[in-house]
Amino acid sequence: MPALAEALVHSATAGPLVHQSLIDFNLAGLGRNFWGLTIEGLTYGAIYALVAVGYTLVYGVLRLINFAHSEVFMLGMFGQYATLLLLGFYPSGNAYDKGILLTVLYLGIAMLGGMIVAGGTAVGLERVAYRPLRKRGAPSLVFLITAIGMSFVLQEFVHFVLPKLTGGTLGGVNAQQPIRLVQPEVQFTIGGAPVTNVTLVIILSALVLALATDLFINRTKFGRGIRAVAQDPVTATLMGVSRERVIMLTFLIGGILAGAAALLYTLRVPNGIIYSGGFILGIKAFSAAVLGGIGNLRGALLGGLLLGVMENYGQVVFGTEWRDVVAFVLLIVVLMFRPTGILGESLGRARA
Amino acid sequence: MSTSTPAPQPSSSGAPTSMPPAGRVATKDRPHGGVGDRLRLWWDALPRPTQWLVGVPFVLFMALVPILNIPVLTTVGTNFGGVMAQFGMIALIAIGLNVVVGQAGLLDLGYVGFYAIGAYTVAILTSPDSPWNQAGEGHWLGREWAWLAALPVAIAITSLSGLILGSPTLRLRGDYLAIVTLGFGEIVRLLADNLDELTGGGQGLRGVAYPRLGVTEDLPNGVFSAGNAAGTLNSGVWWYWLSLVFIVISLLFVGNLERSRVGRAWVAIREDEDAAEIMGVPTFRFKLWAFVIGASIGGVAGALYAGQVQFVIPTNFNVINSVLFLCAVVLGGQGNKLGVILGAFIIVYVPNFFLGRTELFGIPINGNEIASYRYLFFGLALVVLMIFRPQGLIPVRQKLLTYGRELYVAARRSAHVVAPRGGSDGGARPGTPAVATASGGAGGAAPVAGGPTADGPGTARSTTNEEETR
Amino acid sequence: MHRTARRASGGAALLLAATLVLTACGPQSQGGGGDETTGTSTETDDGGSTELSIVPSVQIDIEGAEVEATEGGDPADPAGDGSAECAEGTAIAMAGALTGPNAALGLNILYGAQLAVDEFNAANPGCQVTIKEFDTEGDPQKATQVAPQIVGDASVLGLLGPAFSGETAATGDVFSQAGLLSLSASATNPDLTKNGWTNFFRGLANDAVQGPSVAKYLVNTKSFGSVCVVSDNSDYGIGLAQQITEGLGDAANDECAAEVKTGDKDFSAAVQIISGADADAVFYAGYYAEAAPFVQQLRDGGVDIPFVSADGTNDPQFVSQAGASSEGAILSCPCGPAPDDFAAAYEESAGQAPGVYSVEGYDLATIMLSGIASGVADRAGLIDYVANYSGDGLARTYEWDSAGELAAALIWIYEVQ
């Protein structure tokens, strides 16, 4: 095939940007930036993990992929943004400097705002879209389609309707002009890699939230109800657990964590508040949930962190454009060898 | 306490023997008594030649739709022929995806990958931008026939990719399969995006070949070229007709498969994979078959797309499209091959309907404004439809797969005989136990035929019944 | 705090309670809000950087050398002499993404053209031209469905568009065979004019001009010895990145070249790579939606080298989203700066500030209108008119070679300050 040879010669001469080979293996780059990449990866992984908990809990209880959970996260971002606006902050693209205590307070309030909006959305979603289906005993594929439908509705609501309702302050085609409360500042270094205050806040809050959720599921009465329904809905109902309440609680927890993740995400990516901003992250978080073993709370955390770190390594080794490929290949390979994820499906069985 | 868990079985289990007390309940006990089901029963009982006599004119009518210029139906802001061409391609995709999702019950969220592979195969073989171009001067394929020559290659490669993707992944079940196929769909798109030298990356491949037929003075590139844009017989219509040919072929193909051992195996796998395996159905092999056949049909659609648009670019093959294809299948009625075509029509047509429209039935509207909200309405419609008609617009009815026609005839006969006697609300509706057996949905009577006639788990049944009451 | 929230997990009750808490916070936070405003103003005082905007700095030629802006040209006025006569129902068409994620660009062109048409109609009672909008969503397949409608509409004399390179490639044959003028205000892929279409003209320099010009400017004028070229995965970004890389020659740093995806918001790996490389500047080939978070993350990651980008980033949104991080960014554009009175008129008619290609939309529509005013009444005539046109517009001098490229195309360099 002369044409092929010719084209390859042509592309080789076309310049350094067109890589000499299709994929280059930059292991040296990985070695050089190892700690930096790990820390960055853990930061994103923590956010994936929080969103993944929402997927995994709902799946554990209902055997349902809540495809619209990414939109819950997206609305959480708008929720915390609106809260900051209500608090009197103005978007400027520049960071405020309010001192540690006040900043933490305001961030806390904003996180609460994000949690309320996201939690409310999740519960509302369950009421409007899923409960009628459950009442009718629809097959599981129908739930998935409804979830997709709601995903469209919520996105388009923020895209077209919200700007009309708020006079253009919120929503619309473009990303929100960022409100930044924290300017990333390097606190200390690990292995030569800088660790910023934002990174610390994200990883620590994610860990605290994850721990709290784990305790809640495993130690409280409500958590026992959730586990019972996940394990055997009929028996749980016979034992006096209200399935409807458990389901609502499950959506609420998922939504609250998504709202918290939304605030942490916007700390890291202040320009990410846009109607389409949840979709990719949602798919990644869902992958993380499956990776760890869907239905398994700790699996979601492990899957999230693992996915975040691995895709960060991958994009340095193979090139930045291969980041998503690395994530999906990792997912597929893991499922090939452990078809129920790394930790297995065990929301119901864990400490039952 | 919950109300929904052990869903109050709408007394269907013992129903056929007990006398329904009142009309409303009677309809509940009597499955599928609507107009559609009478039509279905009538159609199934017809002899083959008569079915052809009715079917062929219908297909001809469908073919003429874009050139009849029907007042409200014809789109204003976009070319109706072009819309119908897109509909033809999506309908093919829906038929292919229906084999995988509707018939074999494998949730595939990455079907767009096969569409992409089909399109890219044709593009890589025939686009002058591609390093492996085989068409045009200096290569061994003439531009005239390059598309047609690339089509079988596209089908072969998509089938092969179905095999390659399917053989490791089909060990997974349910939602794991869904996420893995979604991942594969994305990987295909990202490969197309990242392998710049071969696929042109984000710049795409231009100048893909198309069949050069009907060359005249006015149309130096033939009727399929994008240049044939004027008048009613524009290129869109020709592409639509070409897609129709493939639709009919694949319908015959899939329809025959459905009635064969393969189709019965698919149904068995869909309803209960473990049971099927125990009963001696080689589930993995038949799942793989479903995947490969579905993939090859998707490949045909992709080849059509590449030929019509003459330009392929990765962004056209993203997850959203995968999801839309799935919506077409579920909306129309998964498992029902005619239903999914209707679903495809809705997916393609509705967003185009409002574009550029300034009035509808004499009422002035701002079509472009409405059109910008189309995905909002689309999402709402999906939710509402799924709540009130979860089986899709034209739900599938499980048929008797062996000795089918004889039983339908028998059912119809007995319906005529029994109905006037037993029907409490007018004898016109065929609602007797005999019919219930034939159309298979009624739980209690289902096992009679001994075949795989049970209509899914109890949940699905109760919805259908509830559905019928409203 | 989430723990207390969960304690009250009575579903709606919780929501209600939380809302109450928030409203209770209301007045108090208003007070806090006062603090914040003062906080911002002090910040503004010492930072002094909130009033950033994109300011034109120089005009360069293909060798990257600075060229004196030809001030005092006489831009064509759409109003003409007010005596134009034409058939009733005469129209021009505009095709591009008017809805969907890429709509902003299409709308910029549309509003610019609409302004020209409005001015023309107001001045010429004898000739009322309408502008017909056709939405392609920027999707090539959609464009093939829309194109026949445009061609089939006999009242359309000329087309302003298609807006993107991909859809132009997909529909070029349609317009070419129909003999309909296709005057693009934004399709910059160099290959488009190599198809032998006699009806296709573009009103701005293509990427093969912009890339080398900017590259030479960076090397020769700015003396950057090592530049990281980062591109997105769009048609536009890849093409431009190739041109820039070629133009930079040895100055293109292979170590830190990267490709990101349109829609990405996280560029941590690219930032890591760039911070590890010892480069003098970063060139980003892509759109503002990604450029804003990218430059911000670069600055947050401690990378302080100059940020250079092109027309896709040259939008007020870039500055408003990136804030102080965008300060000092160098943005090239084949598009000319919007003159003040144009900007004012545009803002009044469109309700927003002019964006990228608004001026081109206005200029190109003006050219078509002046053709109509000169008595052209058929499609072939309008193609002839444009092919032989020579005159100044708001942005530059318009005169085309036989392929449909601008005879002399200069690039503007802007700076955020």
UniProtKB/TrEMBL annotation, chain A:
The chain crosses the membrane at residues 42-65, 72-92, 104-125, 137-154, 198-217, 246-267, 273-294, 301-319, 325-344. It is found in: Cell membrane. It comes from the Bacteria. GO terms for cellular component: plasma membrane. One of its GO terms (molecular function) is L-phenylalanine transmembrane transporter activity. Its main location: membrane. This is Branched-chain amino acid ABC transporter permease. Keywords: Amino-acid transport, Cell inner membrane, Cell membrane, Membrane, Transmembrane, Transmembrane helix, Transport. It is a multi-pass membrane protein. Pfam families: BPD_transp_2. Belongs to the binding-protein-dependent transport system permease family. LivHM subfamily. It comes from Cellulosimicrobium composti. One of its GO terms (biological process) is D-alanine transmembrane transport.
From TrEMBL, chain C:
InterPro entries: Leu-bd, Leu_Ile_Val-bd, Peripla_BP_I. Residues 27-52 are annotated as: Disordered. GO terms for biological process: amino acid transport. Residues 1-23 form the signal peptide. Keywords: Amino-acid transport, Signal, Transport. The keyword Cytoplasm does not apply. The keyword Signal applies. Residues 92-416 form the Leucine-binding protein domain. Pfam families: Peripla_BP_6. Belongs to the leucine-binding protein family. This is ABC transporter substrate-binding protein. It comes from Cellulosimicrobium composti.
